[in-house]
Amino acid sequence: MPTNVRSLGAPVLVLNLKAYPNCLGAGATSLGTLLAQRARFRNVAAAVCPSAPDLGRLAGQLPIPVLSQHTDAVEPGAHTGAIVPESLLASGVAGSLLNHSEHPLSEEEVARAVGRLQALGLVPLVCAKDVEDARRLARSRPEFLAVEPPELIGGDRSVSTARPEVIRGTVEAVHEVSPGTLVLCGAGVHDRNDVRIALELGARGVLVASAVTRAPDPQAAIDELLAGFPRSPDAAR
Ligand code: G3P
Question: What CATH number belongs to 5-226?
Answer without folding.
Answer: 3.20.20.70
